[in-house]
Amino acid sequence: MPEYGETWTYESIVGAVPGIDVPPRAAIAIQIAVFEGAVLLLAWYYGLWSAAVAGTVAVAVAALGSAEMLRIGAAVRRTDPPAAYRRLLFGTSIEVVLSVLAFVALVTYLVRLSPGSSLATVFGPEAPLPVVYLTLLVLWDLCYRIGTGWWASLVGLWRSARYRFSPAAAGQFRRIDAETILFGFAQLLLVPFVTEYPLLVAALVGHVLAVTVVSGSSILLLWRREHVTASA
Fold first, then answer.
1. Is 198 helix (H, G, I), strand (E, B) or coil?
2. How far apart are CA 219 and CA 225, in angstroms?
3. Pairwise CA distance, residues 141 & 135, whole Å
4. 41: helix, coil or strand?
5. From CA 55, how far away is CA 193, in angstroms rounded?
6. Which residues cross the membrane (predicted)?
7. What is the pLDDT of residues 48-101, one digit of tens each?
8. Is there a contact between 24 and 70 (Cβ–Cβ < 8 Å)?
9. Is there a contact between 113 and 176 (Cβ–Cβ < 8 Å)?
10. For the chain, which residues make up each domain, given as ranges?
11. C-alpha–C-alpha distance, residues 200 and 203, integer Å
12. 80 — alpha (psi -120 to 50), left (phi > 0) or beta?
């Protein structure tokens, strides 16, 4: 098992409960069961079945994000990366800072910038407190995945620009960058549920495009360096 400081914050939390050793797949299954169970229970109790579809998709996207984080983290550790890259990716917790910024921006939009906030539009002017609580919790989960995607993408480009790798290692890092792009594209599943809010659509699509450009640049840089070395 990786040491603390060499994992995503998400992985550290899963492994921090004393006396409990949960395999990654089981942790994701528990995540889905708890969040989806809460979505369905509140939808039934408050008669909000129209909102349950959006909640279910959000839970699925968050779970897919968890799976991608675990895949990317495991792939990075298997490749035996440069120590500085590993520390930047896992040890700084900057993905949490980026996630907080994204979440605060989202809440600011929902509360202040959107006339008749989207929460009120979906749940009514007097949304039940448990529903608001769960909604914000799921939104934080999604923002954490977005922040992690940003950081993985940026650090990946820095890694590819800073270091030279063997063909085998370069190929593995290209696959990691491709996973990071896939990580971003999964969040486009949320777009159909925010089409009435152009700023949220622009933010989601812009996030995916930015990750694609940055991680795509990393892939291209690795590929060019590998071919330059091979032809030298």
1. helix
2. 10
3. 10
4. helix
5. 10
6. 43-67, 88-111, 131-155, 176-194, 200-223
7. 888 899 999 999 999 998 888 888 888 998 888 898 999 899 888 888 999 999
8. yes
9. no
10. 9-231
11. 5
12. left
First to last CA, the chain: 40
Taking each helix axis from N to C end, the angle separating 49-78 and 129-162, rounded to the nearest 10 degrees, works out to 30
Q: What is the DSSP letter of 92?
A: S
Token look-up 């800072």 returns 97
In which element (H, E) is residue 9 found? helix 9-15
Task: Report whether 6 contacts 88 (CB < 8 A).
Answer: no
Dihedrals phi, psi of 145, to nearest 5 degrees: -65, -40
Alpha-carbon gap, residue 68 to 81, rounded angstroms: 19
Amino acid at 88: L
Which value, in Å, is the radius of gyration of the alpha carbons in the chain?
A: 19
Please identify which residue in the block is written with the tokens 């949304």: 127
pLDDT at 117 over 60: no
